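To illustrate the input format used throughout this study, we show a single complete record. The first block contains the structure-token representation of the backbone; no residue identities are included at this stage. The design step must infer an amino acid for every position from geometry alone.
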């Protein structure tokens, strides 16, 4: 199984340049950019699978709507998957499964998230009243319903990045996790500064070759870079107040990922098919697995669980990995996962291991920044992680890379990627 290539739109903070689009238009842009970059004909694509989290109700199967908007044949099936922050990883591994079972040869997998416009619902009572009103026939029935109306019915239901099972926001959970693993505010701010600094350096050097500029309709200037990368100073970061647990929390706006608009897409097929089509892949998609654990106290610890399982499954050790691309939901979450991997107690008690896994080589860890700096469109990040891994393996002359990420619900993913012989980082 090979990853031929992948693209993404620039990742933008919600409420900025993309704010007048619809999510399927962002996804359409990613699909068209992938076709242009790979020079592959639409007709060769057998199937399309896309990930998203907060759905636009008008385009619930956004994979299909984006494909049609991009000019794909109405004979090309497409479906949408969701698994919180790892939705495009699920899209990719779904594609791998369809190819492994000889169902299809060539699949586009991707993801999109659009936080500039999210569904805001009427209250449950107001919705019930409106549905009854729709069925009311006589004037008497309608007046009867009107008499049931109360002003507080008009209070809307706002979406929140919170766990349904616990009611807790992810930021609050991240604050508790950082506290449990004794992650200091300074450690988190330092890590956030590292992420932004490395991302800015990679951007300046032209390493983000997966990013394809986007000429947004009605906007004069072409969008050609991510707009959330901001290299600050320790002093400036230190002045920010806690964002969730006040006044003692350690999670701030600067050491947490921000709401982001963006889309991604990648081309997956068998190696034989790639050769037949004259394509030069970026990488082999070697293996993957998913994990889940307690969504209350271990909501964001999936990388710590998934990485050792993947290494055991593939017969590898930490030292065999040349590139780590780990989703940065919060700086505190990243550091807590690292401390968990380096804890005898945690590895023995919670993962049933004989000893601690140990720390990865941090000189190989998220060397181009991560979600804290580049941005995190929930449904699109997984492809970005895989593409940065593939391109880093080329530029850093590595062989094996690991992608891992946490997701809402206490779930997560880990994937093993191998550099393809002769691959380039363009």
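Output of the design step:
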């Amino acid at each position: 199984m090979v990853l031929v290539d992948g693209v993404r739109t620039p990742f933008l903070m919600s409420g900025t340049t993309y704010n007048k689009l619809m999510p399927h238009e962002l996804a359409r842009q990613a699909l068209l950019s992938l076709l242009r970059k790979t020079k592959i004909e639409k007709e060769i694509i057998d199937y399309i699978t896309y990930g998203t989290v907060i759905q636009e109700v008008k385009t619930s199967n956004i994979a299909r709507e984006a494909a049609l908007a991009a000019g794909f044949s109405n004979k090309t099936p497409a479906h949408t998957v969701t698994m919180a922050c790892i939705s495009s990883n699920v899209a990719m591994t779904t594609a791998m499964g369809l190819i492994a079972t000889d169902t299809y040869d060539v699949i586009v997998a991707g993801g999109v998230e659009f936080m500039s416009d999210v569904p805001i619902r009427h209250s449950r009572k107001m919705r019930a009243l409106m549905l009854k009103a729709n069925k009311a026939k006589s004037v008497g029935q309608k007046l009867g319903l009107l008499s049931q109306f109360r002003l507080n019915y008009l209070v809307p239901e706002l979406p929140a990045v919170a766990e349904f099972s616990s009611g807790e926001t992810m930021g609050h959970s991240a604050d508790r996790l950082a506290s449990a693993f004794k992650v200091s505010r300074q450690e988190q701010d330092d890590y956030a500064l590292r992420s932004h600094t490395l991302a800015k350096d990679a951007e300046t050097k032209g390493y983000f070759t997966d990013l394809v500029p986007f000429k947004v309709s009605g906007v004069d200037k072409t969008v050609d870079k991510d707009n959330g990368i901001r290299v600050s100073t320790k002093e400036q970061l230190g002045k920010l107040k806690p964002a969730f647990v006040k006044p003692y929390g350690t999670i701030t706006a600067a050491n947490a990922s921000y709401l982001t608009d963006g889309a991604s897409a990648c081309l997956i097929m068998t190696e034989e098919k790639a050769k037949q089509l004259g394509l030069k892949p970026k990488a082999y998609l070697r293996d993957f697995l998913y994990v889940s654990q307690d969504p209350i106290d271990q909501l964001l610890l999936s990388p710590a669980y998934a990485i050792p399982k993947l290494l055991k499954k593939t017969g590898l050790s930490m030292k065999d990995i040349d590139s780590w691309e780990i989703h940065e939901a919060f700086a505190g979450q990243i550091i807590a996962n690292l401390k968990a991997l380096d804890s005898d107690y945690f590895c023995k008690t919670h993962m049933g291991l004989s000893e601690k896994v140990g720390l990865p080589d941090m000189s190989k860890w998220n060397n181009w920044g991560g979600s804290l700096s580049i941005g995190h469109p929930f449904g699109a990040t997984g492809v970005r992680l895989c593409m940065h891994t593939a391109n880093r393996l080329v530029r850093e002359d590595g062989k094996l890379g690991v992608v891992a990420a946490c997701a809402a619900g206490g779930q997560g993913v880990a994937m093993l990627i191998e550099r393809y012989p002769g691959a380039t980082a363009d």
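Structural context for interpreting the output: The CA atoms of residues 72 and 319 lie 44 Å apart. The mean pLDDT is 97.
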